[in-house]
From TrEMBL:
Name this protein carries in UniProt: PIN-I protein
Taxonomic lineage: Eukaryota, Viridiplantae, Streptophyta, Embryophyta, Tracheophyta
Gene3D superfamilies, A to Z: Trypsin Inhibitor V, subunit A
Keyword match Oxidoreductase: no
Organism: Solanum commersonii
Pfam family, one: potato_inhibit
Length: 107
């Protein structure tokens, strides 16, 4: 029984450490940034260099690099979110191990 439980835990940890696959075009990133510029968001708008960084460290970097960001949310990858755009919000999607798995973007 304990061995079966250990296998389930290992499977869960491995399964949650991978990114959720989503169908995207490579051009989606620049389109989002252009939309945010039209929305008049100021400062740095995305942080591709934070993928693989611990989320708590990434939160501090985002807040330091764009002082207009007042809402940095840490969410488990795949969590449902609203689709509204806000210039003061960045969502950090992490895995069960606490590392950023998607490019943080203002919105």
């Amino acid at each position: 029984m304990e061995l079966k439980f250990a296998h389930i835990i290992v499977f869960f940890l491995l399964a949650t450490s991978f990114e959720t696959l989503t169908a995207r075009k490579e051009s989606d990133g620049p389109e989002v940034i252009e939309l945010l510029k039209e929305f008049h968001c100021k400062g740095k708008l995305r942080w591709p260099e934070l993928i693989g960084v611990p989320t708590k460290l990434a939160k501090g970097i985002v807040e330091k690099e764009n002082s207009l960001i007042s809402n940095v949310h840490i969410l488990l990858n795949g969590s449902p979110v609203t689709m509204d755009l806000r210039c003061d919000r960045v969502r950090l999607f992490d895995n069960i191990l606490g590392y950023v798995v998607d490019i943080p973007v203002v919105g």
